[in-house]
Amino acid sequence: MGGEGVDTKNGKFLGPWGAIGSQPQKGIASYAISANRQRPLAGTLNAAIFNTWRRFKAQALYVLPPLALAYATMNWAIEKNEYYNSKEGRLADEQAAAEATAGGSVRG
What we know:
With about 110 residues, the protein is mainly α. The chain has helices at about 35-40, 45-85, 85-100, and strands at about 5, 10.
């Protein structure tokens, strides 16, 4: 078989791939499946809920106050615009213009 030949460059020849000079194993069969194949989504739902809550809680004070301020400002502007475009708002504007052009004192 020529298994004892000496290779001057690499040393002793151990045999072809898979038969490296030892006795071949017989009758041993082992099968395994990796952990991420067994339960690939283990704990995902629980982790997603609590991680989302933790991240939301950490960022809430940075996001909510500016949003509340923007909402209040926008609500005020919409109400003011509706007042100016209503009959009462136009009458008040006409009265303020008449007082200003009548030469009356602004301080009253």
